[in-house]
Amino acid sequence: MSQIPQKTDVVVIGAGLAGLAAARRLTIAGREVCIIDAGDDIGGRVRTDDVDGLLLDRGFQLYNPSYDEGLSVLDLKALDIKSFSPGVIVSIDGRSYKLADPKREPSWAVDSLLAPVGKISAKLKFAKYALGLAISKSSSTGYDQRTDAFLRAKFGKDLTEKVLRPFLAGVFLEPDLATSKRFLDITLKSFVAGTPGVPRTGMQAIPRQLAAQLPADSIRLNVTASAVASTMVRTDQGDIRCRSVVIATNARSAKILVPSLQVPNSNAVTTWYHLADCAGAELTDGKSTLVIDGKKFNGHIDDPTRPLVNTVVMTNAAPSYATGNRTLISSSALGVHHSSQAENLVRSHLAALYKVSTSNWTHVATYPVPDALPMMAAPHDTEQSVRLSDGVYLAGDYRQVSSINGALASGRRAAEALLVDDL
Which keywords does UniProt give here (predicted)? Predict the structure, then answer.
């Protein structure tokens, strides 16, 4: 990697999705851009490790092909998104119940209606609500509240506690569902509009595709910024003079650079990967359907013997994630966990969820991710200002919404504000 330049038009701090999206827009506008990142590769939180023929994303992540920002900057055909099943399997008292939109999974219709997870009227009401969001052209800018309060009042205790809380806890990475209803609406709308999946070569294919649209040698890795001004960025490898700066790090790193900046707390997750000792066809009907535990939560009480918020057979949707026809399982729990005892508890929970012995499953890797998602507490402004001061701009999903689409949008918005200011 070449040395950092002494001077450029714009310094973008952070080579994650927000920083790459900002750099892409600025490059198109003719600005000379230098992207610096303290890490050893691009992608920020969206990284994939290739280990012994296995593709291991750092934390369970999916990409929704309906994301509007992605449609404008990514080549989805080249990414070759492998979609997961548009539904969930809820495990309750040793039985599994399939829940999905009957229009997308017609064979699941009876199971969806009769599953003991709430009244049929509540299920139909929830389906109608989600569909209404999908066809609505207005954004969620009205009254905001906590997601859990809204769900319980609107759809009842049983559906909320046995399906919606277990599922959404894995989406928002927090069990209390204190997350903004505005973000809930955005999330549900995207689920109805498109079926999430993973790129054939792993989630890091997304930032790599963005980076490929930038001039060669515009990204400098292993460079740590220590101070920022509108006309200079100080790094551990020297100063870079510039006309403006885009801070596109995660929230924690942004606050280190700008101590006065108000940022949300981060929600953490730990993801375990296992190789099963059976064919993928023997698990979840050969599909990549998210499995959740309907009895993990009892109100706000989290059962510690049921650590996982979700698990899925990755290779049922994306065989490219494991060579040699192996069966790769991804499973996630809230918080940061390192111990072998935690893995043993996970293995026990997996046996209950899949209803097979997991004693011979091979533990491949554990990924604790302390800053997995910024908390979107209610009330939440889904489009916070990207202008920090004259010549200094902010980008990151914490400025928008906690998603890949939010990261891409925040990067574009920061770049466009810079261009409007002609800096």
Answer: Oxidoreductase
Q: Which amino acid is at 150?
A: F
End-to-end Cα, the chain, rounded Å: 28
Q: How far is CA 251 from CA 149, 257, 327, in A?
A: 27, 10, 35
Q: Which fold has domain 51-199+266-374?
A: Polyamine Oxidase; Chain A, domain 2 (3.90.660)
d(CA 284, CA 151): 28
| Residue pLDDT, tens place only, 133-180 | 888 866 656 789 999 999 999 999 999 999 999 999 999 999 999 999
Q: What is the pTM of this model?
A: 0.95
Q: Write phi, then psi, for 70 (nearest 5 degrees).
A: -60, -40
Q: How far apart are CA 269 and CA 358, in angstroms?
A: 22
Whether the Cβ atoms of residue 242 and residue 7 lie closer than 8 Å to each other: yes
Domain map of the chain by residue range? 10-46+204-264+380-420, 51-199+266-374
Phi, psi at 126, each rounded to 5°: -65, -45
Question: How far is it, in rounded angstroms, from Cα 142 to Cα 144?
Answer: 6
* CATH class for the domain made up of 10-46+204-264+380-420: alpha beta
Q: Examine domains 10-46+204-264+380-420 and 51-199+266-374 and report if their fold is the same.
A: no
- Computed on alpha carbons and rounded to an integer, the radius of gyration of the chain in Å comes to 22
Sign of CA dihedral 98, 353, 333, 151: positive
Q: In which element (H, E) is residue 18 found?
A: helix 17-28
Query: Edge to edge, what strands does the sheet with 95-100 contain?
Result: 95-100, 87-92, 290-293, 308-313, 327-334, 266-276, 362-374
Cα separation, 318 vs 320, in Å, equals 5
Contact 27, 4 (CB under 8 A): no
In contact, 270 and 336? CB cutoff 8 Å = yes
- Taking only the tens place, the pLDDT of each residue in 334-360 is 999 999 999 999 999 999 999 999 999
Q: What does the alpha-carbon distance between residue 410 and residue 401 come to, in Å, rounded to a whole number?
A: 9
